[in-house]
Design goal:
By secondary structure, the chain is mainly alpha-helical. It is about 70% helix and about 0% strand. It has a two-stranded antiparallel sheet. Helix 1 runs parallel beside helix 8, helix 3 runs antiparallel to helix 17 and helix 14 packs antiparallel against helix 18. The chain is globular, with a radius of gyration of 24 Å.
Length: about 500
């Protein structure tokens, strides 16, 4: 086995993955107990990166294409074919039909995640919503479209938090941001790719007697089903069950995670632990911050093609003009994630995203001329929100310990935050196009809410870290061992990421 325990006074000639400064470091470990060989760590992390991230990136890209294709289908004639008046709110109804089950089932779905193998769970969800995506292409009225969207929301509810939890289970806290942002960048890339793919599929108008917008749903849904079937054989298991690592690499992985976790456990879901999680101020504050951010993201996904069309672009031009908007956001989001992990800091990068997004909403709200200024506003909103959202999710997960607390906290933040789509789908009122004063005004206000919540989270966590540094939480060490082990991030030795 590629592990050794060495005498600290002996010559350090070993090429093994890690060396210890103590004979038998008793768990829980601290970062001073075990030192890993940097070269071995790099090899291990690279191997994990290849096994975990690419397939989840692909699945999320497909997921977001399926979620956002309604906006692309709209400007290709969906409302006309389904006899939905442009002045009605039929399109908005189709949007929030997805959001309601997506929000309601996110926490229950994520609680099931710990009891099911990730490949069964994630690929099964994806296969199911792929069928529903295809169903939208065969809808004959608003009711059929809304039903398919509602089922999609149900099946997608467990996907993103499930992926976030799976990725986070393989990495130390300050390795997670960059990896999650790579995963999350699939949503940004999907925004660009979706417009281009819709542009191509719309050219199939008339094939088989179906309009072009129907082929957008049918082909994209079929792609989802096929990829889900393949993904079943590729998605990584939980770290303790992984088979893509050699035995000594697996032991090294689990050792690294134990060191990073320290005393924090929280693997037992008791009623007290469940209530404690749902009443945690950090989770609520993070959820409201995500709510403010998600409104901007859902507005961009659902209404950007329409807004561009109403600024004077043709349907094809509007689809194509979304591509550079998302590509700029992609580069900025990955760059910020790298710096955030490098500096082991989250708050300032959240506020950077908030500030950029606020500039965009201000431009749109002011109805700036010429059209190029409004187009720049779209760049700012999209870049700002896609900088903010992945940092918020990782910041929340960094500060929630492990086990069920992290699972429930992630689902609560993402699910509750995604309920902002109920707002965005009802404030862009068709008869007020292209000015949309309510939509842009609410976007600006909720962006401020996100900034306020991030600031409250930062100062609250900093104050709590200082209390623990002074020993004000050490009375918890007197709790019975089973309660102490289940404290999670409430353990006196835990320090919050700022």
């Amino acid at each position: 086995m590629d592990v050794s325990i060495t005498d600290p006074k002996a010559p350090q000639t070993s090429s093994l993955p890690f060396e210890s400064n103590k004979e038998k470091p008793p768990p829980p470990y601290s970062s001073d107990d075990v030192v890993f060989s940097p070269a071995a760590e790099r090899r291990l992390i690279f191997k994990i990166d290849l096994a975990v991230l690419p397939i989840l990136f692909l699945l999320f890209l497909v997921s977001f294409v399926d979620r956002s294709n309604l906006a692309n289908a709209r400007i290709e004639g969906l409302e006309r074919s389904l006899h939905i008046p442009r002045t009605s709110n039929g399109y908005n109804i189709a949007l929030f039909s997805f959001t309601i089950p997506y929000v309601l089932f996110e926490v229950p779905a994520n609680m099931l995640l710990k009891r099911v193998k990730p490949n069964w769970w994630l690929s099964g969800l994806m296969f199911s919503w792929g069928i529903c995506t295809m169903g939208q292409g065969f809808s004959q009225n608003l009711g059929g479209l809304a039903t398919c969207r509602a089922l999609m929301g149900l099946f997608e509810s467990g996907f993103v938090p499930g992926c976030a939890y799976l990725i986070g289970s393989y990495y130390k806290r300050h390795e997670f941001q960059f990896r999650y942002s790579i995963f999350f960048s699939a949503a940004i890339l999907a925004g660009a790719f979706s417009g281009f793919l819709a542009y191509l599929l719309a050219k199939m108008d008339g094939v088989g007697g179906y309009e072009g917008w129907r082929w957008i749903f049918i082909i994209e849904g079929l792609i989802t089903v096929v990829i889900a079937a393949i993904a079943f054989f590729i998605i990584a298991p939980w770290p303790e069950d992984c088979t893509f690592l050699k035995p000594h690499e697996k032991e090294m992985l689990l050792e690294r995670l134990a060191i990073d976790r320290g005393h924090v456990k929280h693997d037992t879901l008791t009623l007290k632990a469940f209530i404690n999680t749902l009443t945690d101020w950090k989770i609520w504050t993070g959820m409201f911050a995500y709510f403010g951010a998600d409104h901007s993201a859902s507005a961009v996904v659902s209404f950007q093609p329409t807004i561009l069309r109403e600024l004077g672009y043709t349907a094809s031009e509007a689809q194509i003009h979304t591509i550079p908007v998302f590509m700029v956001a992609l580069v900025l989001a990955i760059t910020v994630a790298w710096f955030s992990d490098r500096l082991q800091y989250r708050y300032a990068f959240c506020m950077l995203g908030v500030t950029i997004c606020m500039i965009g909403w201000a431009i749109e709200l002011a109805q700036a001329n010429p059209v190029g200024a409004r187009y720049f506003g779209m760049f700012a909103i999209t870049s700002g929100v896609y900088i903010l959202m992945p940092v918020l999710v990782v910041w929340n997960l960094n500060n929630l310990g492990t086990g069920y607390r992290r699972v429930i906290g992630a689902a609560f933040q993402i699910g509750g935050g995604n309920s902002a789509a109920l707002v965005s789908s009802n404030v862009f009122i068709s008869k007020h196009a292209p000015r949309y004063p309510e939509g842009f005004g609410v976007g600006f206000a909720l962006n401020i809410l996100a900034g306020v919540c991030c600031t409250a989270l930062f100062f609250g966590l900093r104050a709590e870290n200082r209390r623990r540094d002074r020993g004000f939480r050490d009375d918890r060490l007197a709790l019975p061992q089973d309660e102490l082990d289940n404290l999670g991030d409430d353990h006196p030795d835990f320090r919050y990421t700022l």
